[in-house]
Amino acid sequence: MPTTIWINGEYKTRDEASVSVFDHGLLYGDGVFEGIRAYGGRIFRLSEHIDRLYSSAKSIWLDPGMPQADMRKMVEDAQAKSGIKDSYIRLVITRGTGDLGMDPRKCDKPTVFCIVDTIALWSKERYERGLTCITAATPISHKENLSPRVKSLNYLSHILAKIEGIAANVDEVIMLDSSGFVAEASGMNLFCARRGVVKTPPPYSGILRGVTRDAMIEMARDANYEVVEEPLNRYDLYSADEVFLTGTAAEIVAVTKLDGRVIGNGQSGPVVADLGRRFRALVTRGD
Ligand code: PMP
Fold this sequence. Notes:
alpha+beta; binds 4'-deoxy-4'-aminopyridoxal-5'-phosphate; 9-stranded mixed β-sheet
C-alpha cells in the first residue's frame, strides 16, 4: 500500500508532498505533532491523541486553524483512504511559512499534514528477548523550560540521547530529568515491576504523558496490579523484576539489560507478557 499524505487540504504523493524551507516548523522546530496507530483499520484512541495535540498547540500559542472535529475526520478519512489496516499515522502542525525572522506573526497560517504509513521499531526477536539500554547523559529538557508534556517538534535532546545509545551499541536509552530522576526512553514511557507492583514516573516529573502509558495503567489496574505513579531512581530499575517501555510505535517491550546490569532474570517477563496480551485485546476491540 502506498503512503497516503494529506497536506493543507489536499492529498499528495510522497514525491509531491513538501513544505517550504521558510516553514517555521523546519527553521525553529516551531510546531507540535502526534504519532497514532490504527489496528485492523480502527484508529486507537484518536480522541485522546487529538486532545493532546490541541493541548500541546494551545500551550505554545499555536492555533491549528481547524476545529478538533474536522481534524479528527481528516485523520479518519486519510486512514480509510490509505487502505493500510495496521497503520502508523503522523500528524503534524507547524507555525507555518514565514520569513527568516522568528516573529510568528509572519506565518499567516499553520502547516498541517498527516502521513499514513507503517512502522516497525524492532525485530520480533527484540520483542521476545527484550532490549539492551543505557542511561543517556543527555537529560530531557527541564519541565519549566519547554514542558515535556508538549509534544513539540523540538526532539533534539531525545535524538541526542538516541545517538548516545547507537554509539554505545545498545537498542535504546533511558533518559533522566535534570534532577536525576528516571524520566522516559527516547520516544517511549517507562515502567518497572517488582513483586506485582507496577511503578511509573508521574507526568509532573517531566515526561510526555503517553496515550499507551495511560492505557497500560488502566489495564494493569483492571488486572489488579497495584500501580504507583511516583518519581523513580535508577536504583528502582536496577533492582526491578521487570523494566518495560510503552509507546504508540513501540507498543510494549521489555528492557532486559540496563547499564550493563541484567534486569530480573534477563528475560522478557510475565508482567510484559500479560500486559502485552491485554493490550492486543484492547486495540483489537478498539476502545
Ligand atoms: N515519550 C516520548 C518522548 C514520546 O515521543 C512518546 C511517543 N509519542 C511517548 C513517550 C509515548 O507516548 P504515546 O504512548 O502517546 O505514543
